[in-house]
């Protein structure tokens, strides 16, 4: 089992946990706005870490961002696997062509 599967399972299990005993449960109990606020904070921290150029700090903050993004996905009944499947679908496509395929007329 890979780490993304393990985290997905842990996040799912913690949805039903007590907010007093689980950080993930606390996020879910606060609702989507709290989850999205946390993603915004973590994205900002990734940007700042990148600007500093400290590779370990970049990895640490990116891990936080990915984790909170996985919480958001779980909130919507999605998982990292859904994102990985989308990335696999895009493999070999031109980024420009893929973006143009999503444009609405």
What topology emerges from the helices and strands here?
Elements: H1 3-14, H2 23-30, H3 32-52, H4 55-75, H5 80-90, H6 95-101
Helix pairs in contact: 1-4, 3-4
Structural class: mainly alpha
**Assigned CATH superfamily:** MazG-like
Order of helices and strands: HHHHHH
| Gap from first CA to last CA | 42 Å
CATH class: Mainly Alpha
What CATH architecture do you see? Answer: Orthogonal Bundle
Low-confidence stretches: none
Strand content bin: under 5%
As for the number of domains, it is 1
Query: How helix-rich are the residues, as a percent range?
Result: over 70%
Quote the CATH topology: Helix Hairpins
Report the strand count.
0
Q: How many DSSP H or I helices?
A: 6
Net shape: globular
* Radius of gyration (Å): 16 Å
Overall pLDDT level:
92
Overview of the structural elements:
The protein is built from six helices and no strands. It has a single domain, classed as MazG-like (Helix Hairpins), CATH 1.10.287.1080. It starts with a helix and ends with a helix. The model has no long low-confidence stretch (mean pLDDT 92). The chain is mainly α and 105 residues long. Helix 1 packs across helix 4 and helix 3 runs antiparallel to helix 4. It is globular, with a radius of gyration of 16 Å.
